[in-house]
Amino acid sequence: MTYDPRTAAVLALHWQLNVIKPEGFFGAMLGEPVARSGVVDRAVRFHQSMRAAGLPVIFTRFTVPVGGGGLVRNTGFMNAVGDAQEAFRPDAPGAQLIPEMRTLAEIDQVVDNQKLSGLAGNHLPQWLAEHGIDTLLVTGVATNLTVEQTARHGTDLGLTVHTVSDCVTAATDEAHHASLANLDLATAGCLTSEDVLRLFS
Question: What is the model's pTM?
Fold first, then answer.
């Protein structure tokens, strides 16, 4: 089986300082496991390869504009970021993409929202439909949070969604692997970056 690069896109979720780096808002939870996993370097190489294959790489950021935007305080996660929303302002240092991703992000879209799913509360579903995109390749942090939420959401929208299993990670190995197992059942299945490169070769 192969895929058509004209109808596929990479959705790169929450590659932000607040999520990825130790000094970020979620650094105490995610900074060390992200660094230990080596996921950033793998995801950079994967994004570059997909760009070379002609696929758009769309980045999402979790931000909170003045006034709250679409933030709804209906979970512990949303309450936490709501209480510290200055750290998530669109121009706040922690809200920016990590340096390793910024060059690629300048080429393609960077989409902000105030939802856990990268496809909620923004124009992305409409943009994907208008551009004939029916397949999403998902990368990002954390596997059991924005990645799983977005992959399930995309599947419910009728898209073929693959999580790129070596380009995502979570706070613990147990949470990471459990989430990937869920996604193998609830979506079109997880693929490694090498698997994807073979599909688009």
Answer: 0.96
